[in-house]
Amino acid sequence: MKSFLRLSLAAIAVTLFLNAFAITETKAQQLNEILKRMDEHYKSLKTLKADVTRAQYNAQLRETDVSSGKISLIPGKGRKFSLRLDWTKPKVETLSIVNGQYVAFIPNIKRAYTGSSDSKTVNDKGGNVLKIMSMSKEDLKANYNIQYLGGEKVAGSIPTLRLKLTPKAATNFKFADLWVDGDGMPIQAKVTRLNDDTDSIMLANLGRNVTINGSIFEVKLPKGTEVVKS
Known about the structure:
Low-confidence stretches: 2-7, 9-25
Number of domains: 1
CATH architecture: Clam
Strand content: 35-45%
Radius of gyration: 22 Å
Distance between the termini: 76 Å
Structural class: alpha+beta
Shape: globular
Helix content: 25-40%
CATH topology: outer membrane lipoprotein receptor (LolB), chain A
């Protein structure tokens, strides 16, 4: 009887191990398919216009600030991309990034910040999250350990595939979550910072490969604007 019990427990353990291995293999295959789809979409995307919503959660105060606006993007390899982000609510601000340099303009105080797109100012304006959303497959695999978490609906009705990105090198956040639609387009991203604050951005009403005049990425500063270099 004891021998039979030991054999039964061993058989159960082997079965559980094989099932876990099969699930892991399946998720790895699904992840590879998602990354392939994202890569194909990334290579075919020439321009993008969309509505954008940003939610910033303060873990200490348990409060969330929500901003909304519009984004225009021309993808490019590495730092060779052009981006314009016009926040309209609750306050008006503009962020433009071209070839690794940024301009952030705050009209109500007539002040503009300029400098490298890697600066803290760009991250504070939502650039860090957007940068993750616009990375190629090679960039994602080079910088993050990627895990497929399964299917999930965004905004209550949009089916997506959710990925978790854990930085391979020390950075200013713990991990990021990325929600990808059926075409391989990241439509939502959330960064969880070291202090458990979160910063998330969602895109809606996507206009893919529409005409974008390159001149919109040049922010024309009114006379008398204070320019701060960072």
